[in-house]
Amino acid sequence: MVICGDDGLAHRLAVELDAVCGEAVTVVLPSRRDGHGAEIAALHRDPHSPIELLVAAHPDEQVLRAAGVQRAAALALTYADDQVNMTAALLARGLNPSIRLVIRMFNRERGRHLERLLDRAAAEGTGASDDDPRPDMSTTVLSDADTAVPELVAAAAVGHGHTLQVEGKVFRGVVRPAGSPPRSTDLATLAVLSGAHQDDPASDDSPETPGEEGTQLLPDTRTAYHRQFTHGRLMLEEVTHRHTPEPAGGERGGPVGGWLRARLAHLPWRVFLSREVIAVFGVLAAIIVALAVATALFAHEHPWWKNVYLPLLDIFTMGDPATDEAVARRVLQLVAGFVGLAVLPLVVAATMNATEAFRSASVGLAPSDDLTDHIVVVGLGKIGTRVLAQLRTTDHKVVAVERDPHARGVALARELGVPLVLDRARIRHSRSLLVLTRDDSENLDIVMAARETTPSVRVVMRLYDDDFAATVQRTLRASYPQAPTRSRSVSALAAPSFAAAMMGRHVLGVMPVERGSLLFTVVDVAGHPELEGRSVHEAFREHEWRVLAVGSAAAQPAQSSMDTLSGIRFRRPGFDWRPSQGKVLRAGDRVVLATTRRGLDILMTGVQPHPADRRG
Protein backbone atom coordinates (compact mmCIF):
# COMPACT_ATOMS: atom_id res chain seq x y z
CA MET A 1 0.00 0.00 0.00
CA VAL A 2 1.35 3.43 -0.97
CA ILE A 3 0.20 6.67 0.68
CA CYS A 4 1.10 10.12 -0.67
CA GLY A 5 0.58 13.00 1.75
CA ASP A 6 1.71 14.48 5.05
CA ASP A 7 -1.44 15.67 6.81
CA GLY A 8 -3.45 14.12 9.61
CA LEU A 9 -5.34 11.86 7.22
CA ALA A 10 -2.12 10.39 5.79
CA HIS A 11 -0.80 9.75 9.29
CA ARG A 12 -3.99 8.09 10.52
CA LEU A 13 -4.29 6.07 7.33
CA ALA A 14 -0.74 4.72 7.72
CA VAL A 15 -1.51 3.68 11.29
CA GLU A 16 -4.81 2.10 10.24
CA LEU A 17 -3.30 0.05 7.41
CA ASP A 18 -0.32 -1.04 9.51
CA ALA A 19 -1.75 -1.68 12.97
CA VAL A 20 -5.33 -2.67 12.17
CA CYS A 21 -5.19 -4.18 8.70
CA GLY A 22 -1.65 -5.61 8.83
CA GLU A 23 -0.64 -4.22 5.43
CA ALA A 24 2.86 -3.29 4.26
CA VAL A 25 2.88 0.48 3.75
CA THR A 26 5.10 3.00 1.96
CA VAL A 27 4.49 6.71 2.64
CA VAL A 28 5.62 9.46 0.25
CA LEU A 29 6.25 12.60 2.31
CA PRO A 30 6.81 16.12 0.91
CA SER A 31 8.84 16.94 4.06
CA ARG A 32 9.83 15.32 7.35
CA ARG A 33 9.20 18.59 9.22
CA ASP A 34 6.02 20.08 7.74
CA GLY A 35 2.49 18.92 8.50
CA HIS A 36 2.47 15.52 10.19
CA GLY A 37 5.81 14.58 8.65
CA ALA A 38 7.49 14.13 12.02
CA GLU A 39 4.79 11.73 13.26
CA ILE A 40 4.93 9.69 10.05
CA ALA A 41 8.72 9.59 10.21
CA ALA A 42 8.42 8.28 13.78
CA LEU A 43 6.34 5.38 12.46
CA HIS A 44 9.15 4.58 10.04
CA ARG A 45 11.70 4.49 12.89
CA ASP A 46 9.55 2.11 14.94
CA PRO A 47 11.37 -1.28 14.83
CA HIS A 48 8.03 -3.11 14.99
CA SER A 49 6.54 -1.19 12.07
CA PRO A 50 6.96 -2.18 8.42
CA ILE A 51 6.23 1.37 7.20
CA GLU A 52 8.71 2.58 4.57
CA LEU A 53 9.39 6.24 3.94
CA LEU A 54 10.19 8.23 0.79
CA VAL A 55 10.68 12.02 0.91
CA ALA A 56 9.85 13.92 -2.28
CA ALA A 57 8.42 17.37 -2.90
CA HIS A 58 6.01 16.29 -5.66
CA PRO A 59 4.54 12.90 -6.63
CA ASP A 60 5.85 12.87 -10.19
CA GLU A 61 6.39 9.74 -12.26
CA GLN A 62 9.93 9.16 -11.00
CA VAL A 63 8.78 9.41 -7.37
CA LEU A 64 5.86 7.04 -7.96
CA ARG A 65 8.20 4.51 -9.55
CA ALA A 66 10.59 4.79 -6.60
CA ALA A 67 7.64 4.14 -4.25
CA GLY A 68 6.87 0.93 -6.14
CA VAL A 69 3.50 1.99 -7.52
CA GLN A 70 3.90 -0.36 -10.51
CA ARG A 71 3.92 -3.30 -8.06
CA ALA A 72 1.58 -1.92 -5.38
CA ALA A 73 -1.92 -3.13 -4.67
CA ALA A 74 -3.30 0.31 -3.82
CA LEU A 75 -2.37 4.00 -3.79
CA ALA A 76 -3.97 6.67 -1.59
CA LEU A 77 -3.54 10.34 -2.54
CA THR A 78 -4.40 12.56 0.43
CA TYR A 79 -2.87 15.93 -0.52
CA ALA A 80 -5.01 18.99 0.25
CA ASP A 81 -4.63 20.12 -3.39
CA ASP A 82 -7.11 18.49 -5.79
CA GLN A 83 -4.88 19.26 -8.77
CA VAL A 84 -1.89 17.44 -7.25
CA ASN A 85 -4.04 14.42 -6.45
CA MET A 86 -5.52 14.32 -9.96
CA THR A 87 -2.13 14.53 -11.64
CA ALA A 88 -0.64 11.79 -9.47
CA ALA A 89 -3.69 9.56 -10.04
CA LEU A 90 -3.40 9.84 -13.81
CA LEU A 91 0.33 9.04 -13.68
CA ALA A 92 -0.26 6.07 -11.37
CA ARG A 93 -2.98 4.63 -13.61
CA GLY A 94 -0.54 4.75 -16.51
CA LEU A 95 2.18 2.99 -14.49
CA ASN A 96 -0.12 0.30 -13.11
CA PRO A 97 -3.56 -0.09 -14.80
CA SER A 98 -4.75 -2.56 -12.16
CA ILE A 99 -3.81 -0.58 -9.03
CA ARG A 100 -6.61 0.47 -6.68
CA LEU A 101 -6.71 4.26 -6.44
CA VAL A 102 -8.19 6.07 -3.45
CA ILE A 103 -8.24 9.83 -4.02
CA ARG A 104 -9.16 12.60 -1.64
CA MET A 105 -11.10 15.31 -3.47
CA PHE A 106 -12.75 18.47 -2.19
CA ASN A 107 -14.58 19.25 -5.46
CA ARG A 108 -17.30 16.61 -5.57
CA GLU A 109 -18.30 17.06 -9.22
CA ARG A 110 -14.67 16.92 -10.38
CA GLY A 111 -14.21 13.79 -8.30
CA ARG A 112 -17.11 12.04 -10.02
CA HIS A 113 -15.69 12.80 -13.46
CA LEU A 114 -12.20 11.69 -12.44
CA GLU A 115 -13.50 8.42 -11.01
CA ARG A 116 -15.25 7.48 -14.25
CA LEU A 117 -12.26 8.52 -16.34
CA LEU A 118 -9.76 6.44 -14.36
CA ASP A 119 -12.01 3.37 -14.26
CA ARG A 120 -12.38 3.52 -18.04
CA ALA A 121 -8.61 3.85 -18.36
CA ALA A 122 -8.16 0.81 -16.13
CA ALA A 123 -10.59 -1.23 -18.23
CA GLU A 124 -8.77 -0.28 -21.43
CA GLY A 125 -5.36 -1.03 -19.92
CA THR A 126 -6.32 -4.51 -18.72
CA GLY A 127 -8.79 -5.50 -21.41
CA ALA A 128 -11.74 -5.60 -18.98
CA SER A 129 -15.22 -4.39 -19.82
CA ASP A 130 -16.40 -0.93 -18.80
CA ASP A 131 -19.58 -2.46 -17.38
CA ASP A 132 -17.80 -5.15 -15.39
CA PRO A 133 -14.39 -3.98 -14.22
CA ARG A 134 -12.53 -6.29 -11.89
CA PRO A 135 -12.77 -5.24 -8.23
CA ASP A 136 -9.00 -4.96 -7.94
CA MET A 137 -8.74 -2.12 -10.45
CA SER A 138 -11.17 0.29 -8.87
CA THR A 139 -10.98 4.05 -8.42
CA THR A 140 -12.59 5.46 -5.29
CA VAL A 141 -12.89 9.20 -4.76
CA LEU A 142 -13.69 10.15 -1.17
CA SER A 143 -14.24 13.29 0.86
CA ASP A 144 -12.88 13.04 4.39
CA ALA A 145 -15.75 15.25 5.57
CA ASP A 146 -18.40 12.93 4.12
CA THR A 147 -16.80 9.78 5.49
CA ALA A 148 -16.55 11.23 9.01
CA VAL A 149 -20.24 12.14 9.26
CA PRO A 150 -21.66 8.65 10.02
CA GLU A 151 -19.25 8.24 12.94
CA LEU A 152 -20.29 11.61 14.38
CA VAL A 153 -23.96 10.75 13.93
CA ALA A 154 -23.57 7.38 15.62
CA ALA A 155 -21.59 8.87 18.51
CA ALA A 156 -24.28 11.49 19.15
CA ALA A 157 -27.29 9.24 18.61
CA VAL A 158 -26.26 6.08 20.43
CA GLY A 159 -22.84 6.58 21.97
CA HIS A 160 -19.45 5.20 21.07
CA GLY A 161 -18.77 2.47 18.53
CA HIS A 162 -17.23 1.96 15.13
CA THR A 163 -19.67 2.58 12.29
CA LEU A 164 -20.51 1.23 8.86
CA GLN A 165 -22.71 2.83 6.21
CA VAL A 166 -24.54 0.95 3.46
CA GLU A 167 -27.50 2.12 1.37
CA GLY A 168 -27.81 5.29 3.43
CA LYS A 169 -28.15 3.29 6.66
CA VAL A 170 -25.62 3.54 9.48
CA PHE A 171 -24.62 0.57 11.63
CA ARG A 172 -22.27 0.39 14.59
CA GLY A 173 -20.56 -2.20 16.76
CA VAL A 174 -21.68 -2.00 20.39
CA VAL A 175 -20.75 -4.09 23.43
CA ARG A 176 -23.70 -5.72 25.19
CA PRO A 177 -23.10 -7.04 28.73
CA ALA A 178 -23.56 -10.74 29.40
CA GLY A 179 -27.15 -11.76 30.02
CA SER A 180 -28.67 -8.62 28.55
CA PRO A 181 -31.81 -9.28 26.47
CA PRO A 182 -31.64 -8.80 22.69
CA ARG A 183 -32.77 -5.47 21.28
CA SER A 184 -34.85 -4.80 18.21
CA THR A 185 -31.96 -2.92 16.58
CA ASP A 186 -29.44 -5.79 16.98
CA LEU A 187 -28.64 -7.58 13.72
CA ALA A 188 -25.87 -10.09 14.45
CA THR A 189 -23.20 -11.12 16.96
CA LEU A 190 -19.74 -10.12 15.78
CA ALA A 191 -17.64 -11.34 18.73
CA VAL A 192 -17.81 -12.72 22.27
CA LEU A 193 -15.67 -11.13 24.95
CA SER A 194 -14.74 -13.70 27.54
CA GLY A 195 -12.33 -11.44 29.42
CA ALA A 196 -14.08 -8.13 28.84
CA HIS A 197 -14.00 -5.69 31.71
CA GLN A 198 -17.16 -3.62 31.90
CA ASP A 199 -16.86 -0.39 33.87
CA ASP A 200 -20.62 0.09 33.58
CA PRO A 201 -22.27 -3.14 32.45
CA ALA A 202 -25.62 -1.50 31.98
CA SER A 203 -24.37 1.24 29.71
CA ASP A 204 -23.84 1.32 25.97
CA ASP A 205 -20.96 3.69 26.60
CA SER A 206 -18.78 1.00 28.12
CA PRO A 207 -15.15 0.88 26.96
CA GLU A 208 -14.76 0.82 23.21
CA THR A 209 -11.90 -1.67 23.40
CA PRO A 210 -13.00 -4.92 25.03
CA GLY A 211 -10.70 -7.21 26.94
CA GLU A 212 -8.36 -9.53 25.05
CA GLU A 213 -8.53 -12.79 26.96
CA GLY A 214 -10.58 -15.41 25.11
CA THR A 215 -12.16 -13.02 22.58
CA GLN A 216 -13.68 -14.94 19.65
CA LEU A 217 -14.63 -13.36 16.35
CA LEU A 218 -17.83 -14.48 14.60
CA PRO A 219 -18.81 -17.21 17.09
CA ASP A 220 -21.62 -19.71 16.61
CA THR A 221 -25.01 -19.04 18.20
CA ARG A 222 -24.44 -21.29 21.21
CA THR A 223 -21.16 -19.60 22.11
CA ALA A 224 -22.59 -16.12 21.58
CA TYR A 225 -25.44 -16.61 24.06
CA HIS A 226 -23.86 -18.97 26.65
CA ARG A 227 -23.99 -16.71 29.72
CA GLN A 228 -21.48 -18.73 31.75
CA PHE A 229 -18.93 -18.48 28.96
CA THR A 230 -19.10 -14.92 27.71
CA HIS A 231 -18.69 -11.66 29.66
CA GLY A 232 -20.11 -9.61 26.82
CA ARG A 233 -21.03 -9.59 23.16
CA LEU A 234 -20.01 -7.24 20.36
CA MET A 235 -23.20 -6.72 18.37
CA LEU A 236 -23.91 -5.08 15.02
CA GLU A 237 -26.65 -2.53 15.66
CA GLU A 238 -28.70 -0.55 13.17
CA VAL A 239 -28.48 3.18 13.96
CA THR A 240 -30.44 4.97 11.24
CA HIS A 241 -33.38 4.22 9.01
CA ARG A 242 -33.86 5.30 5.43
CA HIS A 243 -36.84 7.64 5.42
CA THR A 244 -37.63 11.17 4.32
CA PRO A 245 -37.92 13.52 7.29
CA GLU A 246 -41.13 15.50 7.51
CA PRO A 247 -41.34 19.10 8.65
CA ALA A 248 -42.30 19.53 12.27
CA GLY A 249 -45.83 20.42 13.28
CA GLY A 250 -47.97 18.24 11.05
CA GLU A 251 -51.23 18.64 12.95
CA ARG A 252 -54.64 19.71 11.68
CA GLY A 253 -54.60 20.74 8.05
CA GLY A 254 -51.77 18.38 7.09
CA PRO A 255 -48.00 18.66 7.52
CA VAL A 256 -47.69 21.85 5.47
CA GLY A 257 -50.55 23.63 7.20
CA GLY A 258 -49.37 22.65 10.68
CA TRP A 259 -45.79 23.67 9.90
CA LEU A 260 -46.97 27.04 8.52
CA ARG A 261 -49.11 27.75 11.57
CA ALA A 262 -46.23 26.84 13.85
CA ARG A 263 -43.90 29.19 12.02
CA LEU A 264 -46.37 32.07 12.04
CA ALA A 265 -47.00 31.57 15.76
CA HIS A 266 -43.29 31.72 16.55
CA LEU A 267 -42.25 34.51 14.21
CA PRO A 268 -40.69 37.44 16.12
CA TRP A 269 -43.18 40.15 15.15
CA ARG A 270 -42.05 42.20 18.13
CA VAL A 271 -38.91 43.29 16.27
CA PHE A 272 -41.12 45.84 14.49
CA LEU A 273 -41.82 47.37 17.90
CA SER A 274 -38.20 48.07 18.70
CA ARG A 275 -37.18 51.42 20.20
CA GLU A 276 -35.65 52.59 16.93
CA VAL A 277 -38.76 51.87 14.86
CA ILE A 278 -41.12 53.35 17.47
CA ALA A 279 -39.01 56.52 17.75
CA VAL A 280 -38.85 57.17 13.99
CA PHE A 281 -42.52 56.50 13.32
CA GLY A 282 -43.48 58.42 16.46
CA VAL A 283 -41.66 61.51 15.16
CA LEU A 284 -43.36 61.09 11.78
CA ALA A 285 -46.78 60.83 13.42
CA ALA A 286 -46.12 63.92 15.53
CA ILE A 287 -45.15 65.91 12.42
CA ILE A 288 -48.29 64.80 10.61
CA VAL A 289 -50.46 65.83 13.55
CA ALA A 290 -48.73 69.22 13.77
CA LEU A 291 -49.19 69.88 10.03
CA ALA A 292 -52.82 68.75 10.19
CA VAL A 293 -53.52 71.21 13.04
CA ALA A 294 -51.75 74.01 11.16
CA THR A 295 -53.75 73.26 8.01
CA ALA A 296 -57.00 73.37 9.94
CA LEU A 297 -56.10 76.70 11.61
CA PHE A 298 -54.63 78.60 8.69
CA ALA A 299 -55.80 76.98 5.43
CA HIS A 300 -59.41 76.35 6.52
CA GLU A 301 -59.79 73.12 4.52
CA HIS A 302 -63.16 71.41 4.49
CA PRO A 303 -64.20 68.71 5.15
CA TRP A 304 -62.03 67.93 8.23
CA TRP A 305 -60.28 64.84 6.81
CA LYS A 306 -58.51 67.01 4.26
CA ASN A 307 -56.52 68.55 7.12
CA VAL A 308 -54.75 65.19 7.52
CA TYR A 309 -54.89 63.93 3.97
CA LEU A 310 -53.27 66.94 2.29
CA PRO A 311 -50.20 67.10 4.62
CA LEU A 312 -49.64 63.35 4.03
CA LEU A 313 -49.65 63.91 0.26
CA ASP A 314 -47.23 66.80 0.67
CA ILE A 315 -44.82 64.86 2.90
CA PHE A 316 -44.67 62.00 0.43
CA THR A 317 -44.54 64.46 -2.53
CA MET A 318 -47.68 62.94 -4.00
CA GLY A 319 -49.91 66.05 -4.22
CA ASP A 320 -50.33 68.73 -6.90
CA PRO A 321 -48.73 72.17 -6.40
CA ALA A 322 -51.08 74.50 -4.46
CA THR A 323 -50.51 77.44 -6.82
CA ASP A 324 -54.15 78.55 -6.92
CA GLU A 325 -54.76 78.26 -3.18
CA ALA A 326 -54.23 80.51 -0.22
CA VAL A 327 -50.74 81.63 0.82
CA ALA A 328 -50.95 79.68 4.08
CA ARG A 329 -51.72 76.50 2.14
CA ARG A 330 -48.72 77.03 -0.19
CA VAL A 331 -46.38 77.67 2.76
CA LEU A 332 -47.57 74.57 4.59
CA GLN A 333 -47.04 72.51 1.44
CA LEU A 334 -43.41 73.65 1.21
CA VAL A 335 -42.84 72.93 4.92
CA ALA A 336 -44.32 69.44 4.53
CA GLY A 337 -42.09 68.77 1.52
CA PHE A 338 -38.91 69.72 3.40
CA VAL A 339 -40.01 67.63 6.39
CA GLY A 340 -40.56 64.68 4.07
CA LEU A 341 -37.03 65.03 2.65
CA ALA A 342 -35.61 64.96 6.18
CA VAL A 343 -37.73 62.23 7.75
CA LEU A 344 -38.39 59.70 4.99
CA PRO A 345 -34.76 58.39 4.79
CA LEU A 346 -34.98 57.66 8.54
CA VAL A 347 -38.28 55.84 8.04
CA VAL A 348 -36.84 53.70 5.24
CA ALA A 349 -33.69 52.88 7.23
CA ALA A 350 -35.63 51.90 10.34
CA THR A 351 -37.99 49.72 8.30
CA MET A 352 -35.10 47.95 6.56
CA ASN A 353 -33.30 47.31 9.85
CA ALA A 354 -36.45 45.91 11.41
CA THR A 355 -37.05 43.70 8.37
CA GLU A 356 -33.49 42.33 8.50
CA ALA A 357 -33.80 41.69 12.23
CA PHE A 358 -37.10 39.94 11.62
CA ARG A 359 -35.58 37.74 8.91
CA SER A 360 -32.53 36.86 11.02
CA ALA A 361 -34.59 36.10 14.11
CA SER A 362 -37.07 33.94 12.20
CA VAL A 363 -34.65 31.64 10.35
CA GLY A 364 -35.91 28.76 12.50
CA LEU A 365 -38.40 27.76 15.11
CA ALA A 366 -37.48 28.07 18.75
CA PRO A 367 -37.60 24.76 20.61
CA SER A 368 -40.69 24.16 22.70
CA ASP A 369 -40.42 24.49 26.46
CA ASP A 370 -41.16 20.79 26.99
CA LEU A 371 -38.51 19.51 24.55
CA THR A 372 -36.29 16.81 26.10
CA ASP A 373 -33.97 13.97 25.06
CA HIS A 374 -32.97 15.76 21.86
CA ILE A 375 -29.63 16.21 20.10
CA VAL A 376 -28.10 19.68 19.84
CA VAL A 377 -25.93 20.43 16.79
CA VAL A 378 -23.75 23.53 17.12
CA GLY A 379 -22.40 24.84 13.82
CA LEU A 380 -24.02 24.36 10.40
CA GLY A 381 -20.97 24.53 8.17
CA LYS A 382 -19.86 21.75 5.81
CA ILE A 383 -19.69 19.06 8.49
CA GLY A 384 -22.64 20.29 10.53
CA THR A 385 -24.95 20.39 7.50
CA ARG A 386 -24.18 16.79 6.59
CA VAL A 387 -24.59 15.69 10.22
CA LEU A 388 -27.95 17.46 10.44
CA ALA A 389 -29.20 15.78 7.25
CA GLN A 390 -28.12 12.35 8.51
CA LEU A 391 -29.54 12.85 12.01
CA ARG A 392 -32.92 13.65 10.53
CA THR A 393 -32.98 10.13 9.01
CA THR A 394 -33.10 8.80 12.58
CA ASP A 395 -35.95 8.99 15.06
CA HIS A 396 -34.15 11.56 17.22
CA LYS A 397 -35.31 15.12 17.80
CA VAL A 398 -32.73 17.71 16.74
CA VAL A 399 -32.07 21.35 17.63
CA ALA A 400 -29.52 23.35 15.61
CA VAL A 401 -27.51 26.30 16.91
CA GLU A 402 -25.97 28.69 14.37
CA ARG A 403 -25.19 32.39 14.80
CA ASP A 404 -24.67 33.12 11.09
CA PRO A 405 -28.05 33.33 9.28
CA HIS A 406 -26.20 32.83 5.97
CA ALA A 407 -24.49 29.59 7.03
CA ARG A 408 -24.70 26.65 4.65
CA GLY A 409 -27.03 24.54 6.79
CA VAL A 410 -29.59 27.21 7.75
CA ALA A 411 -31.71 26.61 4.64
CA LEU A 412 -31.68 22.86 5.32
CA ALA A 413 -32.75 23.39 8.94
CA ARG A 414 -35.67 25.54 7.81
CA GLU A 415 -36.67 23.00 5.16
CA LEU A 416 -36.66 20.14 7.69
CA GLY A 417 -38.47 22.16 10.33
CA VAL A 418 -35.56 21.77 12.76
CA PRO A 419 -35.59 24.35 15.59
CA LEU A 420 -32.76 26.78 14.85
CA VAL A 421 -31.71 29.11 17.64
CA LEU A 422 -28.88 31.31 18.78
CA ASP A 423 -29.49 30.45 22.42
CA ARG A 424 -31.96 28.54 24.62
CA ALA A 425 -31.21 25.17 22.97
CA ARG A 426 -32.27 23.39 26.19
CA ILE A 427 -28.91 21.63 26.51
CA ARG A 428 -29.78 20.68 30.10
CA HIS A 429 -32.56 18.45 28.78
CA SER A 430 -30.74 17.11 25.70
CA ARG A 431 -29.40 13.63 24.99
CA SER A 432 -26.24 14.74 23.15
CA LEU A 433 -24.33 17.85 22.15
CA LEU A 434 -22.40 17.92 18.87
CA VAL A 435 -20.02 20.88 18.52
CA LEU A 436 -18.91 21.18 14.89
CA THR A 437 -17.85 24.77 14.19
CA ARG A 438 -14.68 25.51 12.22
CA ASP A 439 -12.80 27.00 15.17
CA ASP A 440 -11.09 24.55 17.57
CA SER A 441 -10.92 27.13 20.36
CA GLU A 442 -14.58 28.02 19.98
CA ASN A 443 -15.55 24.35 20.03
CA LEU A 444 -13.58 23.82 23.23
CA ASP A 445 -15.10 26.92 24.85
CA ILE A 446 -18.62 25.71 24.04
CA VAL A 447 -17.96 22.23 25.39
CA MET A 448 -16.40 23.48 28.64
CA ALA A 449 -19.31 25.85 29.20
CA ALA A 450 -21.78 23.03 28.53
CA ARG A 451 -19.92 20.73 30.90
CA GLU A 452 -20.15 23.35 33.67
CA THR A 453 -23.92 23.67 33.34
CA THR A 454 -24.77 20.07 32.32
CA PRO A 455 -22.01 17.66 33.40
CA SER A 456 -23.88 14.51 32.34
CA VAL A 457 -24.69 15.39 28.71
CA ARG A 458 -23.01 13.28 26.03
CA VAL A 459 -20.58 15.50 24.10
CA VAL A 460 -19.14 14.89 20.62
CA MET A 461 -16.63 17.55 19.54
CA ARG A 462 -14.89 17.96 16.19
CA LEU A 463 -11.30 19.25 16.36
CA TYR A 464 -8.90 19.56 13.44
CA ASP A 465 -5.70 18.49 15.19
CA ASP A 466 -5.87 14.80 16.11
CA ASP A 467 -3.27 14.96 18.91
CA PHE A 468 -5.05 17.95 20.42
CA ALA A 469 -8.35 16.10 20.12
CA ALA A 470 -6.93 13.08 21.99
CA THR A 471 -5.54 15.32 24.76
CA VAL A 472 -8.85 17.19 25.13
CA GLN A 473 -10.78 13.91 25.31
CA ARG A 474 -8.54 12.48 28.02
CA THR A 475 -8.71 15.68 30.06
CA LEU A 476 -12.48 16.01 29.85
CA ARG A 477 -12.98 12.36 30.73
CA ALA A 478 -10.66 12.73 33.72
CA SER A 479 -12.50 15.88 34.87
CA TYR A 480 -15.96 14.41 34.28
CA PRO A 481 -15.52 10.63 34.58
CA GLN A 482 -19.27 9.93 34.53
CA ALA A 483 -19.90 12.04 31.42
CA PRO A 484 -19.37 10.51 27.95
CA THR A 485 -17.03 12.72 25.93
CA ARG A 486 -15.70 12.13 22.45
CA SER A 487 -13.28 14.49 20.77
CA ARG A 488 -12.04 13.43 17.35
CA SER A 489 -10.55 14.96 14.25
CA VAL A 490 -12.14 14.46 10.84
CA SER A 491 -8.97 12.76 9.60
CA ALA A 492 -9.13 10.17 12.39
CA LEU A 493 -12.77 9.46 11.63
CA ALA A 494 -12.19 9.23 7.86
CA ALA A 495 -9.06 7.02 7.93
CA PRO A 496 -10.88 3.66 8.30
CA SER A 497 -12.99 4.40 5.22
CA PHE A 498 -9.92 5.27 3.15
CA ALA A 499 -8.22 2.11 4.40
CA ALA A 500 -11.24 0.00 3.46
CA ALA A 501 -11.28 1.48 -0.04
CA MET A 502 -7.56 0.72 -0.46
CA MET A 503 -8.23 -2.92 0.37
CA GLY A 504 -10.68 -3.24 -2.51
CA ARG A 505 -14.03 -1.98 -3.69
CA HIS A 506 -15.71 -5.01 -2.16
CA VAL A 507 -14.62 -3.90 1.34
CA LEU A 508 -17.27 -1.69 2.97
CA GLY A 509 -15.47 -1.04 6.23
CA VAL A 510 -13.02 -2.26 8.85
CA MET A 511 -13.88 -2.66 12.54
CA PRO A 512 -10.98 -3.19 14.98
CA VAL A 513 -11.61 -5.85 17.63
CA GLU A 514 -8.68 -6.17 20.02
CA ARG A 515 -5.52 -6.78 18.01
CA GLY A 516 -7.50 -8.19 15.11
CA SER A 517 -10.20 -6.75 12.90
CA LEU A 518 -13.42 -7.61 11.12
CA LEU A 519 -13.95 -6.68 7.49
CA PHE A 520 -17.38 -5.91 6.09
CA THR A 521 -17.54 -6.91 2.45
CA VAL A 522 -20.05 -7.20 -0.38
CA VAL A 523 -19.74 -10.37 -2.46
CA ASP A 524 -21.65 -11.77 -5.45
CA VAL A 525 -22.81 -15.29 -4.57
CA ALA A 526 -22.18 -16.59 -8.09
CA GLY A 527 -18.85 -18.42 -8.35
CA HIS A 528 -18.44 -18.95 -4.61
CA PRO A 529 -19.19 -22.59 -3.72
CA GLU A 530 -19.01 -21.69 -0.02
CA LEU A 531 -22.14 -19.54 -0.54
CA GLU A 532 -24.02 -20.60 -3.67
CA GLY A 533 -26.78 -23.14 -3.07
CA ARG A 534 -26.45 -22.91 0.71
CA SER A 535 -28.87 -21.42 3.17
CA VAL A 536 -27.86 -18.38 5.23
CA HIS A 537 -27.33 -20.69 8.20
CA GLU A 538 -25.26 -23.18 6.18
CA ALA A 539 -23.15 -20.41 4.62
CA PHE A 540 -21.94 -19.31 8.07
CA ARG A 541 -18.37 -20.37 8.89
CA GLU A 542 -17.36 -20.00 12.51
CA HIS A 543 -14.55 -17.48 13.14
CA GLU A 544 -14.31 -16.68 9.40
CA TRP A 545 -17.50 -15.15 7.98
CA ARG A 546 -21.19 -14.54 8.63
CA VAL A 547 -23.91 -13.41 6.21
CA LEU A 548 -25.40 -10.13 7.43
CA ALA A 549 -27.65 -9.09 4.53
CA VAL A 550 -28.90 -10.48 1.23
CA GLY A 551 -29.74 -8.49 -1.89
CA SER A 552 -29.88 -8.80 -5.64
CA ALA A 553 -26.73 -8.72 -7.76
CA ALA A 554 -28.70 -6.60 -10.22
CA ALA A 555 -28.24 -3.70 -7.79
CA GLN A 556 -24.93 -2.66 -9.28
CA PRO A 557 -22.68 -0.06 -7.65
CA ALA A 558 -23.42 3.47 -8.74
CA GLN A 559 -20.87 5.42 -10.74
CA SER A 560 -20.06 7.83 -7.97
CA SER A 561 -18.81 7.07 -4.48
CA MET A 562 -18.47 10.58 -3.17
CA ASP A 563 -21.59 10.40 -1.01
CA THR A 564 -20.91 7.12 0.78
CA LEU A 565 -18.72 6.02 3.64
CA SER A 566 -16.77 3.40 1.75
CA GLY A 567 -17.19 4.24 -1.92
CA ILE A 568 -20.08 1.88 -2.55
CA ARG A 569 -23.65 2.79 -3.21
CA PHE A 570 -26.41 0.45 -4.32
CA ARG A 571 -29.47 0.97 -6.44
CA ARG A 572 -32.74 -0.73 -5.60
CA PRO A 573 -33.57 -3.44 -4.85
CA GLY A 574 -31.72 -3.05 -1.59
CA PHE A 575 -30.46 -5.47 1.04
CA ASP A 576 -32.56 -7.44 3.49
CA TRP A 577 -30.71 -6.98 6.78
CA ARG A 578 -32.78 -9.60 8.58
CA PRO A 579 -32.76 -12.55 6.17
CA SER A 580 -34.31 -15.85 7.19
CA GLN A 581 -31.68 -18.38 8.27
CA GLY A 582 -33.32 -20.86 5.87
CA LYS A 583 -33.09 -18.57 2.83
CA VAL A 584 -31.08 -20.27 0.07
CA LEU A 585 -28.45 -18.11 -1.62
CA ARG A 586 -28.69 -18.17 -5.44
CA ALA A 587 -26.30 -17.16 -8.19
CA GLY A 588 -28.18 -13.90 -8.71
CA ASP A 589 -27.79 -12.80 -5.10
CA ARG A 590 -25.31 -10.45 -3.50
CA VAL A 591 -24.50 -10.62 0.21
CA VAL A 592 -22.92 -8.40 2.83
CA LEU A 593 -20.52 -10.41 4.99
CA ALA A 594 -18.64 -9.84 8.21
CA THR A 595 -15.33 -11.66 7.72
CA THR A 596 -11.88 -12.05 9.20
CA ARG A 597 -8.93 -11.37 6.92
CA ARG A 598 -8.36 -15.10 6.59
CA GLY A 599 -12.02 -15.67 5.75
CA LEU A 600 -11.92 -13.01 3.04
CA ASP A 601 -8.80 -14.61 1.56
CA ILE A 602 -10.61 -17.97 1.41
CA LEU A 603 -13.61 -16.44 -0.36
CA MET A 604 -11.53 -14.48 -2.84
CA THR A 605 -8.95 -17.17 -3.66
CA GLY A 606 -10.77 -20.40 -2.87
CA VAL A 607 -7.68 -21.67 -1.00
CA GLN A 608 -8.62 -23.46 2.21
CA PRO A 609 -6.32 -23.08 5.23
CA HIS A 610 -4.60 -26.09 6.76
CA PRO A 611 -6.59 -27.42 9.76
CA ALA A 612 -3.63 -26.66 12.03
CA ASP A 613 -3.92 -22.99 11.07
CA ARG A 614 -7.54 -22.66 12.20
CA ARG A 615 -7.96 -20.86 15.51
CA GLY A 616 -10.79 -21.44 17.97
Please provide a written account of the structure.
The chain has helices at 8-20, 37-45, 61-66, 82-95, 108-126, 144-158, 221-224, 254-266, 275-299, 306-315, 327-361, 382-391, 410-416, 440-453, 466-479, 490-502, 536-539, 597-605, and strands spanning 2-4, 26-29, 52-55, 74-77, 100-104, 139-142, 163-166, 169-177, 186-192, 216-217, 232-238, 375-378, 398-401, 420-421, 432-435, 458-462, 485-488, 507-513, 516-524, 545-552, 589-595. With 616 residues, it is α/β, with parallel strands linked by helices. Helix 1 packs across helix 16, helix 9 crosses helix 10 and helix 9 packs antiparallel against helix 11. It is elongated, with a radius of gyration of 32 Å. The relative contact order is 0.11. Mean pLDDT is 76; it is low at 130-135, 196-213, 242-260, 555-573 and 611-616.
> Beta-strand percentage?
15-25%
- The coarse overall form would be elongated
Strand order of the largest sheet: 3-2-1-4-5-6
Low-confidence stretches: 130-135, 196-213, 242-260, 555-573, 611-616
The amount of helix comes to 25-40%
Mean pLDDT: 76
Number of helical elements: 18
Distance between the termini: 30 Å
Major β-sheet profile: 6 strands, parallel
Rg calculated over all Cα atoms? 32 Å
What is the count of β-strands? 21
Structural class: alpha/beta
